[in-house]
Amino acid sequence: MYCLLSIVLFAGPYSIEWSAIPSGGIVAVECAGDVNDDGTEDIFAASGEAYGYGIICLDGISGEILWLNDSIPGAYKTGCLRTIGDADFDGIADLAVGTGLEYAVTAISGATGDILWSSSQNNAVQFVQRSIGPEPGDAVVLVSKVYGGENCTFFALDGQTGNALWSAPTQSTTDSWIRVTEGDATGNGWSEMGYSIDRASVMNGYVTVRDGHTGVVVGGSGAMYFPSMDICDSPMPCLAVSNFGDDPVMWVNSLIVGNTIWSSNDGSLFFPHLDFIPNITGPSTPYPEILGWSGSYLTLIRGDDGYFQDRYEFPGSLKSFDCYLDESQWRLAAITSTSFYCPYLTFVSPTLEPSVVLPSSGGADMCLLKSNLYPTPLIAVAMTGSGSGVCMINTSWPVGISGETSSSVPIVPVVNLLSVPGIGHIDIVGGSQAEIGILDITGRMIKRISINSGEQISVSLIPGVYLLVDQNSGLLLHKATVVSE
């Protein structure tokens, strides 16, 4: 039931490295850090509870399962799986899972998948986040749960013990998302959290920022209609708010002082979702940029003055996104239910290319993984469709391999692999004459092979991940995994 589905072998960046978990039904993925110490970060993945496949840790290089805990059937939905730091002090990040069939918040060891603690609840958990403390292992698990469809409570649990720390009053809202800062904006050693309350009327809607450890209110807004918000703490703590039907439509306030940095009455700046991203315009602007998005539309907004121009238009609704630095330019990494996109972040005339079609429909979540094999992140994607459940997408050529084909080689050599993964060896079949170099995981050339069209060669290799390259052009032909016999 739980096995590697395939290693998908493509020749360039923006392609699928591997697909795993044939049963599908994965609703969330999180970066696990480098669990097995191979230089590439690994992946926590959660199936939907209805599928009952459990919580899984996958190797970032190959997609092989490092551990599986199926005593927890999965997560309630996307947003209910979150890394919380090293709560058990073993050097590996741990995670918290929220469930909605058997109401609970459960902490799991990132190293082994064992349960650290579990906190039973009286309603379905809607969202899980975390607040970071001043000492190693300090963490607060931030949670929201909904009563009867719209009555939502936000509360906090100690990340090491699961003990209750504080709870906010129950509010009428279905917006159960929790926003967090990455550092301490208020100076007490703990990062902050924020949320929107936005149901029913202009008198009831508002946004609130609380200290993650104590729950004390440190900022927010007065009454407004359908507000959305995000908070940041780098380089200056601030709060961004967008709301429908009121003036200003959007504004950014200092989180500490409370003064308005900028505001706008432009109705096109109403967004159901706001997300701060890194300051892509550089040190000339003191505040980071903001992404406002709704359905299939996304707008880049300058954080210090509200400047915006054109919007991205995706062919389907956005499910998840992040951003990363590609050499000196920022790219947006985003998924819809069917495709992955990584366009450059720009205010004027944004385009969506390049893109990758996901191996199964139902893209639900994604996370970025660092690897010493690649100069830019790998993208792990969770998919809820009937095909594979997780896939890995590269965003650059491997380190040391050029992406440009030599003009002296007008035809790309054709070679194929007979078995994926290989059992103690790989079998190579030539579709044309080729000079092949085999590189190990460090990029070191370990074998050179000449093969003719129709010829089959078996190459014995120790277990590991290998790259097959054209020796003439440096073009990546295949990636192969070898397992022990």
Describe, in short, the structure shown.
This protein has 485 residues and is mostly beta strands. Helices cover 0% and strands 46% of the residues.
Features:
485 residues, Immunoglobulin-like, 5-stranded antiparallel sheet, globular, disordered N terminus
Q: What percent of residues are in strands?
A: over 45%
CATH class of the largest domain: Mainly Beta
Distance between the termini: 21 Å
Q: Name the CATH superfamily assignment of the largest domain.
A: YVTN repeat-like/Quinoprotein amine dehydrogenase
Secondary structure: elements and pairs:
Elements: E1 4-7, E2 16-20, E3 26-33, E4 42-47, E5 55-58, E6 65-69, E7 81-85, E8 94-99, E9 104-108, E10 115-120, E11 125-132, E12 139-147, E13 151-158, E14 164-167, E15 171-172, E16 179-180, E17 192-197, E18 206-211, E19 217-220, E20 228-232, E21 238-242, E22 250-254, E23 260-264, E24 273-276, E25 290-294, E26 297-301, E27 311-313, E28 320-326, E29 329-335, E30 339-341, E31 355-357, E32 363-369, E33 378-383, E34 390-393, E35 415-417, E36 422-423, E37 425-430, E38 434-439, E39 445-451, E40 456-460, E41 464-470, E42 476-483
Parallel strand pairs: 36-42
Antiparallel strand pairs: 1-2, 2-34, 3-4, 4-5, 5-6, 7-8, 8-9, 9-10, 11-12, 12-13, 13-14, 13-15, 16-17, 17-18, 18-19, 20-21, 21-22, 22-23, 24-25, 25-26, 26-27, 28-29, 29-30, 30-31, 32-33, 33-34, 35-37, 37-40, 38-39, 38-41, 41-42
